[in-house]
Amino acid sequence: MKVQTVTGPIELGQLGRTLMHQHLFIAFSGAEFDPLAVFDRAGFIAEAVKRLTQLRVEHGVKSFVDPCPIELGRDAGMMKEIAEKSEMNVVCTTGFYFEAMGLPVYWRARTVEEIAELYIREIAHGIGNTGVRAGAIKVATGEPGISPLEMKFLEAACIAQKATGVPIITHTQDGFAGPDQQAAFAKNGVAPHRCLIGHCCGNPDPAYHRRIVDGGTYIGFDRIGLLRYQPDELRADNLVKLVKSGHQAQILMSQDRHCGWLGKFARQLSAQEQAHIEALRAQGAWPPPYSYIFMDFLPMLRERGLSDGQIFSILEDNPRRFFAGESLPKV
């Protein structure tokens, strides 16, 4: 069993310490028409290489999973160049975003089988003419539940998963619909341990987290540092509760942070938010660094009683088992 990265397949043992849901570059549809949205490609690549190199050298990260949806500016060729220059294993995905913020008109009109055919082609043959193959499938749903249109794309992902064997990584909006995703995957014949239900830390309720892990999937605490959704102290409390209840092997951690963004955000920022961003930019700290999880969040877990052995098992053993498709250990 190997893991497909943007620079080619690697052995499972080469994954090492892995951040399971990060982004390099994001561009929401329409930003390319904004005359004020200027993208310095060379400058961005240099900055991304610097940040990934820092992760590798200072924090021991070997692998970086970027589940950027197809229509959110995914650039497989640029990912490959950044991976080569930073000596980081980068895994990209095939798959689209959720209805309210994605799903291009052309693909909305396609059948489940046609969408699945695209996913399979990008996994088996490559993305466009880049030669870069996707190593996982992205599924995204909105809130409060899965729309009929989103369900079509989810069903296509299930077909592609069963045809190729690569795992599924999901987006849930604000921590909604994780159990609905699990039920849909089960209905379509995808084994639960081949799925990571993402952004579960956006839901503050420990009972919601227990429903996810009891469903047999991996659970994503993968918006660490995004304080607009939840305080990290609460994320740390809830993660530790899962570990203490015997579900350490199902947790996958990450930050959902990006290194570059084309144009403005896909929502209007408040004056306070804009001022905060400008202050960080003046300090050279915008976008926020990927190192936050190691410098700020892991100490919270240690304060709550987790050992380094437990923490780094979550960051190393769990991603390897997830990509390997191994069954979860018995609780």
Brief summary of the model shown:
Helices cover 41% and strands 15% of the residues. The protein is an alpha/beta fold and 331 residues long.
How would you describe this structure to a colleague?
This protein is of the alpha/beta class and 331 residues long. The chain has one domain: Metal-dependent hydrolases (TIM Barrel, Alpha-Beta Barrel). 41% of the residues lie in helices and 15% in strands. It has eleven helices and twelve strands. An eight-stranded parallel β-sheet has the order 3-5-6-7-8-9-10-11. Strand 7, helix 5 and strand 8 form a beta-alpha-beta unit. It is globular. The relative contact order is 0.14. The model has no long low-confidence stretch (mean pLDDT 96).
What is the strand content? 5-15%
Give the overall pLDDT as a whole number.
96
The main pleated sheet reads as: 8 strands, parallel
Number of helices: 11
What oligomerization state is this entry in?
single chain
Proportion of helical residues: 40-55%
Per CATH, the class reads Alpha Beta
Q: Walk across the major sheet and give the strand order.
A: 3-5-6-7-8-9-10-11
